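Treating backbone geometry as a discrete language has practical consequences that deserve illustration. The amino acid sequence and the backbone structure tokens for this protein are reproduced below.
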Amino acid sequence: MKIKLIFFTAIVIIGGCKEIPPFIDFEKNNTNLLDTTYIETSVPAPVKTMVVIEDLTGVNCSNCPKAADKIKTIKTANPDKVISIGEYPWALSNLTAPWAGFDTLNTKEANDIFVNIFNNPTGIPTGGVNRKLFSGETTLWVSYFNWAGFADQIKIEDSKCIISSQIISKDTISRKAIVKVKVLFTESYSKPVNLTIYLTESNILSKQHMPDGTKKNDYIHNHVLRKSITPYSGTMLKMDVIANMYEKGRVFEKEFEIKIADKWNFKNCEVISFVNRFDNDSKEILQANEIKLE
């Protein structure tokens, strides 16, 4: 059994006052996209937390391929337990500036993440694991030498929620897709969270400064952040106003329309969804999911 509530945009005028519901920014051109929440009475058991490694990187950074290799090793050791995102900011331009004549991998979203989530790391390669501040660390960004150990800590934790996603439709002519994301809270949770959706692309051949000092024109860049479908920090999942928390069994189902740029390969794109905090105390990713666009 489930109790369903559909959110919609409306303006109610009562006694001369205007009540305007919170703005929901889903970058959607299709006004028929699903946006619903309800309580599921049959709640599954908690699942383990997916590891999310964000690799802050650059094409002019000679050590950055070492961090990418570290991610491959971690993923091989932990099949289906690790999601990685290659984020190419504009900051630290001596290490991140794109090569003339090659694909520009830098994005505003990656730069926003670099500045506003990781608080301007002093160098790359670096990154974070589930945006968690680990014991003994003073920043969310940590050396790639420590990623495996922190991933081992995350992967054994029970998550407060389950997140799943599916491609509802896709059109390679209009280069649009609709993805449906479902979030289910398996335990009550009292901190406000956001839902964040990123589009990444793999198997991108582009120039890279290598550890031996050479420049490789056909280096393969994987899981590159191409765009954020929501704001880079996510879009708010609304708490129950009476309980002031996400109740056990609370479900959110939302659809998002994704536009795929002409230069991006449909077959190599991935949709990454995660539930994350974004407050003064924490930016932690609670749970994540990844699916191929095609």
Remarks:
- The mean pLDDT is 92.
